[in-house]
Amino acid sequence: MLPLHPRRRDALVLLAASTLPWAAQAQERRDTVHISMSLEPDSLDPTSAPAAANAEVVHYNLLEGLTKIEQNGQTRPLLAQAWNTSADQRVWRFALRPGVRFHDGAALDAQTVRWCFLRAQQADSGNKGKPGLFDNIAAIDTPDAQTLVLHLRHADPHLLFRLGDSYAVILHPQSAARASTAPVGTGPYRLEHWQHGQSIRLRRFAGYWGARPALEQGVFHFNAGQDVQALDTQRIDMFFNFTSRRLDGFRANAQYQVLVGASSGKGLLALNHRLPLFQDVRVRQALTHAIDRERFIAIALQGYGSVIGSHFTPNEAGYIRLAGTYPYDPERARQLLRAAGVQLPVRVPLALPPTPYAQIGGPLIADDLAQVGIQVQLQPLSWPQWLDGPFKGEFAMTLINHVEPLDYGIYAKPDYYFGYDSPPYRDLLTRYQNAPSARQRQLLFADIQRFLAADAANVWMFNASIGTVIRTGLQGVWVDYPTFAHDLSSMYWE
Fold first, then answer.
1. Does the pLDDT at position 295 exceed 80?
2. Residues forming CATH 3.40.190.10 domain(s) in the chain
3. Most CB within 10 Å of its CB: which of 160, 336, 345, 475?
4. Is 129 left (phi over 0), alpha (psi -120 to 50) or beta?
5. Using CA atoms, how far apart are residues 238 and 217, in angstroms rounded to an integer?
6. Contact by Cβ (8 Å): 398, 352
7. Which CATH class is domain 266-464?
C-alpha cells in the first residue's frame, strides 16, 4: 500500500465501511516501516558483540547512550542533557537527563552508567569500544544520582562521538545478562518479537522520556536479501545498502526513491599477520599492487565507492588521501614477491562472508592474484561461521567491511583477529593520545594514516557509498551513515 495522497482521502472515507480490512491495512502501512537487512544480528547487545547488524536494529531504537550521533556526524545530547570539560579535556562532567526509565520501569542514574562503563572495561567484555573509549577512562565519579564524572588518561577529541556509538549504550545491571536476546533499554521502542531467521519486530514504548515517535512499529527482515520482488509486492519499504544491479533502474520509478550517501566503512582484504607469509612487508605491498581496486569497485559495488589507502574514510575529519601509495601494478607485485623469496605459485585461502560485495568481489580478487602467482582458494562462509572462524583468527585472508568509525586503535591490539603487531605503531598512537596541543594531534593523526599505509597492514580496498532504496512517501531515512543505525524515531510517512 502506497502512502495516501490528499486526493484519495475522500474516497477512503467513503469506502471505509465496506472495506475495513483494506482500511486497516492502510493504517498499518502508515504506522509501520518494513526494513530489509543483508545480515541477521547474532546478538542484540552491541556492548558485547561486534557485528554491525546488531546495532542497526537496536541503536537509538531500544538502546541509547549519553550522546547521539546525527547523520551529519555531529553529536547532540541524549541521556546526558549537558556537559562541560576541564581546560586539558581530561575531566568531563555530565548531567544526566532526569526522569528517564528503562522499559522495565527501572530508573536511570549515574551509578547505572558507571556500572555499564566498568563492565565494558573488563578484559573479557567483548566490547569493541574498549581500546578507543573505555581503556582511556581512568576513574568514574558519581557525586550524585544525576551527575557522572569521567577522568581520562589522555584527552580525546572524539570522546563525545565515541559516547554516541553503539558500544556505549546504557543497559541496566538487572537485565544486562539477557541483553543478547531480550534487551531492555531506555529508547523509544521496545522489543516485541524476534523470529530467528526471519524478522525482528519493535513496538513503540509508551513510557519513553522523549518525544513520541510517529511510527508505531518497525520490522526488520533478514531473508528478503536483495529480492526486488519484495519491493514490487510492497512487502518491504526500505532496502538498506542495496546492491542489486537494478539499483539505477529504481531512479526512474516514481514508486521508489534511491538514496546514495557516505559511510564510515573500510572495505579491506584482511591478512593474518600470524602467518609467516604475511610478516614480510614486501608481500603485503605486493598484494595491494596486484589488485585492481577500481575494477573491484566498478563491478562488486557497481561504482558506488572510492579507493582508500589506509584505515580511514573521506568523511572523517583529518583524512588524507593515500589510495595511490601502492597503485595497481602487477609487474611490481611480482618483483616484490620474488624479492621476498616467495616460491610461486603459492596457495592461499580467502574466507568470504555472505555479503554481496564479498560474493561478487571474491572471484575478482582471486583473478587478480592469480596473475602474480597467488592461487586463491575461495571459502564461502555463513555469518556465524565467519564470526567463529576468521574473527577469532582462524583464516589466512578475508574480505570484510569494517563499518565502525574511528577504529584505528584495533591496529594497536596484537590479539585482534588479524594479529597486527607493530611496536612502532603503538608508540605513534601513544604519542598521538598524549599530544599536548590540538595542532600536534592533527599532525600525528596524519602520521598514523601514513604509517598504516606504508606498512601495508592490510589491503584497503574501498570506502563504499550506501545505496538505499525506499518507498516513496517514507521520510526521515538517513542518507549518510557515520555510524550504522536505523533511527526509527526519525522516520514517518507523508
1. yes
2. 6-36+188-262+466-493
3. 336
4. alpha
5. 14
6. yes
7. alpha beta
Report the side by side order of strands in the sheet with 397-402.
Answer: 305-306, 459-464, 266-271, 397-402, 346-352, 374-380
CA angle 36, 38, 42 (to 5 degrees): 105
What is the CATH superfamily name and number for domain 52-178?
Dipeptide-binding Protein; Domain 1 (3.90.76.10)
CA dihedral angle for residue 394, residue 400, residue 406, residue 411, rounded to 10 degrees: 30
Instruction: Give the amino acid at 215.
Output: L
Helix ranges restricted to H, 371-481: 383-388, 423-433, 438-454
Residue 248: how many other CB atoms lie within 10 Å? 12
* Separation of alpha carbons 38 and 360, rounded Å: 14
For residue 23, the number of C-alpha atoms closer than 13 Å in the C-beta half-sphere is 13
Q: What sign does the CA torsion over 354, 309, 313, 436 have?
A: positive
pLDDT at residue 341 greater than cutoff 90? yes
Burial of 315 (0-12, 13-18, 19+ CB in 10 A): middle
What is the predicted pLDDT for the residue at 19?
40
Tell me the mean pLDDT in the region 43-67.
95
| Backbone torsions φ then ψ of 367, nearest 5 degrees | -65, -45
Is residue 61 within 8 Å of 488, Cβ to Cβ? Answer: yes
Mean pLDDT of 455-462: 98
Least confident span in 11-25, 67-81, 281-295, 479-493: 11-25
Number of H helices and number of E strands within the chain?
13, 21
Find the distance separating the first CA and the last CA of the chain, reported in whole Å: 13
Stated as kind and residue range, the H or E segment containing 286 is helix 281-290
Mean pLDDT over 152-163 rounds to 95
Which of 369, 367, 290 minimizes the C-alpha distance to 333?
290
Q: Where in the chain is the domain with CATH 3.90.76.10?
A: 52-178
Integer Cα distance of 90 and 87 in angstroms:
8
The rounded distance, in Å, linking the Cα atoms of 322 and 459 is 12
Q: Which residue has the cell 465501511?
A: 17
- pTM equals 0.86
CA atoms within 13 A on the CB side of 145: 6
pLDDT for 185 beyond 60:
yes
- Indicate the pairing of strand 80-85 with strand 91-96: antiparallel
pLDDT at 30: 80
